[in-house]
Specification:
about 425 residues, alpha/beta, TIM Barrel, four-stranded parallel beta sheet, about 35% helix, binds zinc ion
Length: about 425
């Protein structure tokens, strides 16, 4: 693997913007050194990339996706500057296939997966899978979803997932109280606590799906590491903020998916903008512009925006994630990370730098990815070069010039 220097570039290292132009040297897939001078390349006779007019940042992390076997869609995530994906429920065969492929190929982001979520008989996500697809292979796979019932089954489930290669555990707390499905069987707090305790024994993070306040409180109280969505059925309360504070849980808001669940035109409007245009293909645009439309009357995206804003103001970590997947209406793998960050800035009182942190350094810290998310000596050279300055105007994050995954320049265009 060759060594190279990116020279004369504005540097956002995952935490802050450096003063003046910088040079970043990469060798053997890692950041070798960073200097404020522009002479690194010349002095060391390395190949030089001129970063004038551009910003170099850690490439992005999406903390909530579903990859299935959508290799082409996952490739597009890389082209959009996203080099790490957290896959939040998948069949073991798909998860293993995509994880292995993503480590062999320089053209795919690295995939981490929950494998099967901790589902109960008849419970979520069976209803949404039936709602969104008529693919017989996918529908047949529903029969193999876990049917947890006792704490013992929870412990066995976690041990089995871990042995298959699961990187974390996904919980499903969904009674369909604020969705347009009939009431669904959902796990008890006792069962969720058993799953979470077992995951802790195996040193695995836990992420819980919930869309309403009641069930968010239930899983937070059971000790979950993170919420995989922001709830949107009602305004937030002091109690939920106190619960996050007490447990130090973080939230992956997925405002992109929430807008789609509500049938809002948020993604469609964004897809029609100049900055989104270059990240989308005909098929990804088509999927992004469609909506799930599964939220009940009385829900509001404003509840979600205001809660994320309040959580952030109270010091709770907000980690960027979109719930994108090859068949998930209103999403787009890769491109939606840029939309999600823009929504944090527009609606949740984030500065552009804070939005970028939520998809880089802060994400890496909370997802326990010690090797990435930061541009510093010794870290993986997962890098994104964009034209303009996204640390002042978040829209510039979409001006992708180059993407490197562990020092490999990706063939993105
Ligand atoms: Zn999801």
């Amino acid at each position: 693997m060759s060594a190279f220097v990116i020279q004369n570039v504005r540097l956002f290292d995952g935490f802050r913007v450096h003063d003046g132009p910088c040079s970043v040297q990469v060798s053997e897939g890692k950041i070798e050194r960073i200097e404020s001078s522009s002479s690194l390349g010349t002095a060391n006779r390395l190949s030089v990339i001129d970063g004038s007019g551009c910003t170099l940042l850690p490439s992005l992390i999406d903390a909530h996706v579903h990859v299935f076997r959508g290799v082409d869609e996952v490739k597009r995530a890389l082209a959009a500057g996203v080099t790490t994906l957290f896959d939040m429920h998948n069949t073991p065969s798909n998860a293993t296939y995509m994880k292995d492929l993503s480590r062999q190929s320089n053209e795919l982001p690295e995939v981490f997966s929950a494998f099967h979520a901790a589902t109960v008989d008849g419970g979520w996500p069976r209803a949404i899978v039936r709602h969104t697809t008529d693919d017989p292979t996918i529908l047949a796979s529903l029969a193999d979803y876990p049917k947890l019932d006792t704490p013992r089954s929870a412990f066995e489930f976690v041990a089995k997932n871990k042995s298959m290669g699961a990187d974390f555990i996904k919980l499903m707390q969904e009674s369909a109280e604020c969705l347009t499905f009939q009431e669904l069987p959902a796990p008890s707090k006792e069962l969720q606590k058993a799953v979470i305790d077992a995951a802790k024994e195996h040193d695995l993070l836990t992420f819980a799906h919930a869309t309403n306040l009641r069930e968010t409180l239930l899983v937070l109280d059971a000790g979950v590491s993170a919420m995989a969505h922001q709830f949107f059925d009602q305004a937030h309360t002091e109690e939920v903020i106190a619960s996050y504070k007490k447990t130090n849980a973080f939230v992956v808001p997925t405002l992109t998916a929430i807008s789609s669940m509500m049938g809002l035109g948020t993604a469609k409007t964004w897809a029609g903008s100049a900055q989104a245009d270059k990240l989308l293909t005909d098929s990804s645009r088509h999927l992004l512009c469609d909506c799930m439309r599964i939220s009940s009357e009385g829900c509001s995206v404003q509840y979600a925006y205001r809660c994320v804003k309040a959580l952030k103001a109270n010091g709770i970590d907000i980690i960027c994630g979109t719930d994108s997947g090859p068949t998930i209406h209103g999403t787009a793998l890769g491109a939606a990370v840029h939309l999600e960050m823009a929504l944090y800035v527009e609606h949740c009182a984030f500065t552009p730098v804070e939005a970028l942190q939520s998809a880089t350094s802060l994400s890496a810290k909370r997802l326990r990815l010690a090797d990435r998310g930061v541009i510093a000596s010794g870290k993986r050279a997962d890098l994104l070069l964009v034209r303009g300055n996204p640390t002042e105007d978040i829209k510039d994050s979409t001006n992708v010039e180059k993407v490197w995954k562990a020092g490999h320049l990706c063939n993105v265009h």
